[in-house]
Amino acid sequence: MKKVLIVSANYYKDVESGLLYSASNILKKKYKLKFLVVPGVFEIPFVISKNIKKFDGFVALGCVIKGQTPHFEFISNAVTQGIMNLSIVSKKPIGNGILTCLNKKQAIHRMKKGKEAAKAIDHILTKLI
After folding, report:
1. Which tens digit of pLDDT belongs to each residue from 20-41?
2. Per DSSP, what are the bridge partners of residue 65?
3. Number of domains in the chain
4. Angle in degrees, 0-180, between the axes of helices 113-123 and 13-27, rounded to the nearest 10
5. 57-65 vs 3-9, strand pairing mode
6. Burial state string for 42-61 with b = 16 or more CB within 10 A and e = fewer than 16
7. 82: domain range?
8. Exactly one of 28, 71, 104, 109 is catalytic; which is it?
C-alpha cells in the first residue's frame, strides 16, 4: 500500500480541520496516511523535504489570509515555489491544498479544497506513476 503524508498548518485551526477532513476522506481507503501538523504554511515545504524519501506522495494543507502588509504575497509565493521545487526535484507528487484568501469568510467557504489536492495526488499515484 502506498504511503501519503498530509502536512497541515494549524494557524487557522477551523480552516485546517475542514481541509483535513475533505482531503483525508478521499485518501483514507486507498493509502496509508500519516499526518503532521506545523504552526504555519511557511514550515510545510521543510517538513515535506525532511520526509521526502519515506512517502509516495504528499498533500500540503493550510491557509494564508491577506492582511495590511505585503507579507501575504511573500509567504504565498515562497511556499508555492518551495512545494513546486520539491515536487520537481524529488519526482514525487505534492498536492497543493493551501488556500490564499482575502478574508476568513472566503477561507471557510473554500475549506473543501483539500479534497481537490487529495484527488490530484490519487490520480497521479494511480494513473500516472
Report:
1. 999 999 999 999 999 999 999 9
2. 101
3. 1
4. 30
5. parallel
6. bbbbebbbeebeebbbbbbb
7. 3-128
8. 71
Mean pLDDT of the chain, nearest integer: 96
What is the secondary structure of 56-108 as a DSSP string? Answer: SEEEEEEEEE--SSTHHHHHHHHHHHHHHHHHHHHT--EEEEEEEESSHHHHH
Q: Is 109 a catalytic residue?
A: no
Torsion from C-alpha of 73, 112, 86, 74, nearest 10 degrees: 10
With residue 49 as reference, give the H or E element that holds it: helix 44-50
Cα separation, 25 vs 118, in Å, equals 9
Q: Report the CATH number that the domain containing residue 89 is assigned in CATH.
A: 3.40.50.960
Cell of 46: 521543510
